[in-house]
Design goal:
Number of helices: 1
Structural class: mainly alpha
Strand content: under 5%
Distance between the termini: 7 Å
Number of strands: 0
Radius of gyration: 17 Å
Length: 55
């Protein structure tokens, strides 16, 4: 039987990481705008490695 509590806490941790990343990006964009710098100098896509699914 899946460990739903563990799965929930892993999801909550990843959501918190995503929110933190978005807040930092927003702050950087605001700071860059105020300083007259271009908001995006380079776009990168990072793939998050998936953990093996244990049933």
């Amino acid at each position: 039987m899946p460990d739903y509590q563990k799965m929930y806490f892993e999801l909550a941790a990843r959501v918190a990481d995503a929110v933190e990343l978005l807040v930092k990006a927003q702050q950087k964009g605001g700071n860059d705008y105020m300083e007259g710098q271009p908001a995006i100098t380079e776009l990168r896509i990072h793939e998050i490695p998936q953990k093996p699914d244990h049933h």
